[in-house]
Amino acid sequence: MKKIICIALMAAMTAIAVTACGNNGTADTTTAATTTEATTEATTEATTTEATSEETTSDTSVSEETPDTSSTTDVVIAKIREAYGENYLPNMLVPGDMIEDMFGLTEDMYNAITAETPMISTHVDTVIVVEAKEGQADAVEAALNAYRDSKVNDEMQYPMNVAKVNASRVVRNGNFVAFILAGAYDDRQDATDEERAVFAEEQTQIGVDAFNSCF
Fold first, then answer.
1. Whole-number Å distance between alpha carbons of 157 and 89
2. Which of 30-44, 55-69, 83-97 has the lowest mean pLDDT?
3. What is the mean pLDDT of residues 80-97?
4. How far is CA 77 from the centre of its chain?
5. What phi and psi values does residue 213 have, to the nearest 5 degrees?
6. What residues have CB less than 8 Å from 184, skipping those under 6 apart?
7. Which helix (H) or strand (E) holds 116?
8. Is 60 exceeded by the pLDDT of residue 27?
9. Sheet of strand 126-132, all strands in order from the earlier edge strand to the far edge
């Protein structure tokens, strides 16, 4: 009888051991599967990130060719601005809808225009560069000369602006026409009117030379 009980106990213990081993096998399998899945996801994500990074780097490293814009009005006015440096006072772009009212230039007269004026009302500095439409260059030049005349004949000008306004110029090269009223102020206290006029003309010439250098 004891022998039978011992055999039964041994069988029961064996069954428990087999079950435990089976559970451990499942746990190990589950753990392994989870680890494999996490590793696969991490590898995939890393590969995707690397590919995206390489694509971005590739796009960034490719520099687009700068188009030849040497004849556009904004580049011409940039040359003039650069020539004057810190003495270039126009710092406000004139909106397109104000071009006609301010300068008498209608949209049918030009292909492109860039006009800049100062934000401070006491300054008169103004630079306008126009690319006239074919056959309209004469009309554009006439309109800018009329604008210049209105400035010269304005009796309300501040004394410090008179020499500069009188020295302003309208210049033309082909279909490109510019009005240049810019440069440093003559701050000499003892300068004569003639000396101030010469100084202002020299300042205007800086802009004229920059305009001509674009062509």
1. 17
2. 55-69
3. 96
4. 16
5. -70, -15
6. 84, 87, 203
7. strand 110-117
8. no
9. 92-93, 110-117, 126-132, 176-181, 169-173
Q: What's the pLDDT score for residue 71?
A: 52
Phi, psi of 93 (to 5 degrees): -75, 130
Smallest Cα–Cα separation from 140: which of 106, 180, 114?
106
Tokens of 45: 């994500």
Write b or e for each residue in 125-158: b if 16 or more Cβ atoms lie within 10 A of its Cβ, otherwise e: bbbbbbbbbeebbebbbebbeebbeebeeeeeee
Q: Of all residues in the chain, what percent are helix, strand and coil, respectively (each to 5)?
A: 60, 15, 25
Query: Are 165 and 124 within 8 A, CB to CB?
Result: yes
Question: What does each C-alpha distance from 173 to 80, 111, 170, 197 come to in angstroms?
Answer: 15, 15, 11, 25
Tokens of 125: 């500095």
What is the DSSP code (8-state) at residue 68?
Answer: -
Q: CA 152, 153, 159: angle at the middle one, nearest 5?
A: 65
Q: What is the pLDDT of residues 104-147, one digit of tens each?
A: 999 999 999 999 999 988 899 999 999 999 999 999 999 999 99
Among 129, 120, 102, 114, which residue's Cα sits nearest to residue 160? 120
